[in-house]
């Protein structure tokens, strides 16, 4: 906690709120060439390729840049240039009601392999998403799969 003149300073409202977001889990990153990006992350940065899947005319790969931190998922079907920061919540509908009461405006709802997701933008244009992990077995299903790269 920041200190000012020897006195602990509290951020107003933080200690009063129930934290709805469990964790920033996934950086969902658009890629024009997932195979080339996978090769770059693996060969140049030394990342571990968790999976590289090609299905339904889309290529998606997860790479691990370090032992900890959010998952990095590269996707050629994701529009735009900016990543979507996906945060996990226990109950998506409850979180959307809570944030909706504070003014959150949804951009869209999508179904991810891990579960339902809702995306939105901040006033400054950052792309954010909330998802509920209803299918945890998906991790094991895709782990080690390599359709390309």
What brief labels describe this structure?
alpha+beta; 2,3-Dihydroxybiphenyl 1,2-Dioxygenase, domain 1; 8-stranded mixed β-sheet; 40% strand; globular
Structure in words:
The model has no long low-confidence stretch (mean pLDDT 89). The relative contact order is 0.20. The chain has 149 residues and is α+β, with helices and mostly antiparallel strands. Helix content is 17%, strand content 40%.
Secondary structure elements and their pairing?
Elements: E1 3-4, E2 7-8, E3 21-30, H1 34-43, E4 48-55, E5 58-64, E6 71-75, E7 84-89, H2 92-101, E8 106-112, E9 115-121, E10 127-132, H3 138-142
Parallel strand pairs: 3-6, 7-10
Antiparallel strand pairs: 1-2, 3-7, 4-5, 5-6, 8-9, 9-10
Low-confidence regions: none
* Cα gyration radius (Å): 18 Å
Question: Strand-and-helix sequence, N→C?
Answer: EEEHEEEEHEEEH
For this structure, what is the CATH class? Alpha Beta
